[in-house]
Amino acid sequence: MAMAGLYRRVLPSPPAIDFASSEGKQLFIEAIQSGTMEGFYKLISYFQTQSEPAYCGLASLSMVLNALAIDPGRKWKGPWRWFDESMLDCCEPLEKVKAKGISFGKVVCLAHCAGAAVKAFRTNQSTLDDFRKYVMACTTSDDCHVISSYHRGTFEQTGTGHFSPIGGYHAGRDMALILDVARFKYPPHWVPLTLLWEAMNTTDDASGRHRGFMLISRLPRAPALLYTLSCKHESWVSIANYLVDDVPVLLSSKDVKGMHDVLSIVFTSLPSKFEEFIKWVAEVRRREDGGQGLSLEEKERLSVKEEVLKQVQEIGLYKHVTGFLSLGKSCCQTILPSGSGDNLPDIAASICCQGAELLAGNSVSSDVFCCRETCVKCLNSNGDRPVTVVSGMVSNGNGEERVDVLVPSSPKKLSCCHSGKISCTVHPANNDVLTALLLALPWETWSGIKEEKLLQEIRILVSTENLPTLLQEEILHLRSQLLIMKRCKDNKITVICDIPTEI
């Protein structure tokens, strides 16, 4: 005979106070009057229950990202872009999270990869007074939210480690409102802030490190305009290690005389499947009713991306990279999709399959798609400059659809198929992608070069200080991504003021 499942738990009170109780309601009213419930309204609008017993970190993060109105930039279901637990899979496989949960550092990594500004603190690097200040700051505003990582046992609740957002604060009673994402277990509840600190000031057995809290807010603009680093595929581990750890050692151990030697050392030893690591931020759409017109939103985003691309191509480092690749010692086969070579239809098919993967919410790999009838066109729209569109009929075995990928382009080098009148370049190309990546490497990467004149030249070439603002912000974000991904892999991540530091 099947046993009946569990239906909720009785909330141990004290120490917690049920949000829906008479006392809980009174605390709520008083907190509203004191102005420390401002963040509550956005959070409660997007409050969700974790869909798996171990998904508390994913549910808390998706709830906060939606409350902040951060656009995931890819489809969830149907035409809708929306954060869901199933989309937070880039830093840790969902199956692993389902089986073992997720660490504090990996949630910070996910928040960063999702496009949020993150300040994260473990309790052994913060204080109760600082925590109280941050809680008060976020609860008196609706543009910042706190996610707490704590041990349930401190509140006499069943279970161990847990994540949930803080929905409000009562200054008079010094109590925080926990919006428990395990709503099948406990309702939202008020707890003494000092006790919440004690619950956070515990050690996670899996990582051996302290728990803590993180402040999540919006960035002034979308961080990745043209390029982004991806930790969705397994190859990112070896690539991040190579770029951060191995390249500095190689440069310091070899007799490096000029820029050609530097580029040869960096590029010739790149790990396999490097194309999965640094990606071009695509604008992807389904073709509807055969229409090819671009919306105002699409035009504006492409215009910004084309400006970033233009800025990349105007710097001195780009000229060195282009010259190196033109000598035939390039890593073309590394950056372009495997087996594509210089065959434009194959490149277009690969781009369309990646676009179909994005439209599918990245729930399936682009390897399961096949693409036919590929074409690269340049569209003129109302007198605007030409826009490159890579199109293809993509199938995953269950059906097919026509996918358009809008590409930042510049008028040179490559003739578009079926147009015959306009030339344009399909990106990402080896030279601009590799230039962006070199700029994103940590400053200390080059310090081991013994030739002083060469070292000074490189420092000038990779300096971000004199870059145009758009490109500078793009490169600094890539650099932050690289460092966070490396430390996320080592489970040594803390982010203070959105700058990763190892502690």
Automatic annotation (TrEMBL):
Domain Peptidase C83, residue spans: 1-221
Enzyme Commission number: 2.3.2.15
Record's keyword annotation contains Transferase: yes
Listed Pfam families: Phytochelatin, Phytochelatin_C
InterPro entries (UniProt xref): Papain-like_cys_pep_sf, PCS-like, PCS_N, PCS_N_sf, Phytochelatin_synthase_C
One GO term (biological process): cellular detoxification of cadmium ion
Sample GO molecular function, one term: glutathione gamma-glutamylcysteinyltransferase activity
Top-level taxon of origin: Eukaryota
Keywords linked to the UniProt accession: Acyltransferase, Cadmium, Metal-binding, Transferase
Cited PANTHER family: GLUTATHIONE GAMMA-GLUTAMYLCYSTEINYLTRANSFERASE
Name of the protein in its database record: glutathione gamma-glutamylcysteinyltransferase
Source organism: Escallonia herrerae
